[in-house]
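Assess this one:

_____
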Amino acid sequence: MVNYIALRSYLLTANLICALLLAPIRSEAAVNPSMIRLSIDDFMRQHMQLLAQRYDDSVTMDYKIGALDNRITMPDCGSPLAIELKDSNSFGRTNVRVSCQSTSPWSLYVPLTINLYRPVVTAAVPLSRGINIGAHQLRLRKVNISSLNGSYFSDIAEVIGMQSKRALRADAIVLASQLAPPLLVKRGDAVILSASSGALVVKIAATALRDGHAGEQITVRNKQSKRLVDARVTGPGQVSVAM
């Protein structure tokens, strides 16, 4: 006698197995944007600690991971994701490489911004072009220098007495390219020309024929002989030449 209940159970089980076998296979990506971000965060926290050891307590840093498309799906990785910066000294905008180094390797690049903040010399007030800068016109201000182009100053004393080559607005960062050595001699000034030969030094009255900054070579006219001499500016109203 046929056991209809057992037969029915058998047919249902067989149908279920067939359905599972014939169903399209879906690969679920185990590595999603959230996991990628977590891996980058873990790496960057350690990296920032190493960077901080190079600077004093006045310097601070942070980072920002760029946008990741939420639709990104990467194959499962049998090992921890490898995170790598092209340059360990990178600041500003860069990329971090995220890769899987298992039997089915893959990699992708994620935009990253690393910011470095430190006190630098800035203009406390607007500075006009051509002035000799004083201490009261400067101040230290912590700014983000990660994308700064040009050499900056971290000590106000390095800027005092320098001449501005261009006008600067208040709070602007003072860069080396914006400064010139102080103007020590002006065209038409009476100067003392020191002519030296070994231990012998002769001082002569002369007239500057153009402006001169510290260390710059200018032409002066000997007041007695009217001879033109190329001399180097050594101080306010002072020039020298080797004989």
